[in-house]
Write a structure and sequence with these properties.
binds 2-oxoglutaric acid, 262 residues, 9-stranded antiparallel sheet, Jelly Rolls, alpha+beta, 23% helix, 3-stranded antiparallel sheet
């Protein structure tokens, strides 16, 4: 399967692309069942809502993922980290052959999974989750260039009620000044110029099996979950093969997995 020229151009213009019904419902259900079991038992390494809110920029850059500290046992898990190693079903989804030609197209070269970033089951728990503020994923990542794309799989319906992703189209190609971001490098909502840009945001409700590709510099956010069921999604990141992680940074601490064309 490959993208049409129109789809590829849309990805480069908008910074994201929806691939409707890319994964089978049965696979999504299996992934979700395993994820829910890991979430129930808070199988490490995880990130909790507490850590997400409390960590400084420097801590977020360094964290490699541990367990849940004893004092945050009751707090909800925001994401299961390092999912590639957790279960064969997770690994097979990340290595699935059908998406490789598409990833090759959007990156313009061989895709390589970076296990340092995302590589997660991302959740929004009912009642206890928090908003994810406007940000670029690349802010805490350290590579020679920004040729990185994330692959988001909706394991169930994602909508405005349970916290579907929202994007600012084209923001991956914009240049921003440091003052447009707060101390944790979230895109400041009080800055007038930012507010104008935020009004151009878009979001698309997702169905089970939908995949969204999005560029690592695309501004995106998500609401907290106002529904009664958890929102559970799978996200991993690929980079162009020639784009090396900078030595000595967290981005270089983990293995990479090359996805050869089938
Ligand atoms: O909260 C969400 O569902 C999106 C999470 C996200 O964008 C991130 O952690 O980079």
């Amino acid at each position: 399967m490959t993208l049409t020229d129109e789809q590829l151009s849309k990805f480069h213009t908008d910074g994201f692309l929806l691939l409707p019904q890319f994964a089978k419902a049965e696979l999504c259900d299996t992934i979700k069942d395993i994820a829910l079991a890991h979430l129930k038992h808070k199988v490490p390494p995880v990130e909790t809502e507490y850590e997400y809110e409390a960590k400084s920029k420097e801590e977020r850059e360094k964290t490699v993922g541990t367990g849940v500290p004893h004092f945050v046992k009751e707090v909800s898990v925001r994401r299961l980290r390092q999912v590639y190693e957790r279960d064969i079903v997770f690994r097979e989804w990340m290595e699935n052959e059908a998406i490789r030609p598409i990833l090759h197209q959007v990156l313009g070269e061989s895709p390589v999974i970076t296990l340092a970033h995302h590589n997660s089951i991302m959740t929004k728990m009912p009642h206890t989750s928090t908003e994810t503020r406007w940000h670029q994923d690349f802010r805490y990542w350290h590579f020679e260039n920004d040729n990185l794309v994330s692959v988001w799989l909706a394991l169930d319906e994602e909508n405005s009620r349970n916290g579907v992703l929202e994007f600012i189209p084209g923001s991956h190609r914009m240049h921003f000044s440091a003052e447009q971001f707060d101390e944790k490098e979230y895109f400041s909502q009080t800055f007038k110029q930012n507010r104008v840009l935020i009004e151009t945001k878009v979001s698309h409700p997702l169905q089970k099996g939908d995949v969204v590709l999005f560029h690592c510099k695309l501004l995106h956010r998500a609401n907290k979950n106002l529904d009664d069921k958890p929102k559970v999604s799978f996200v991993y990141t690929v980079k162009g093969k020639s784009n090396r992680a900078l030595p000595g940074t967290r981005s270089a601490l983990f293995d990479e997995v090359e996805l050869a064309l089938p």
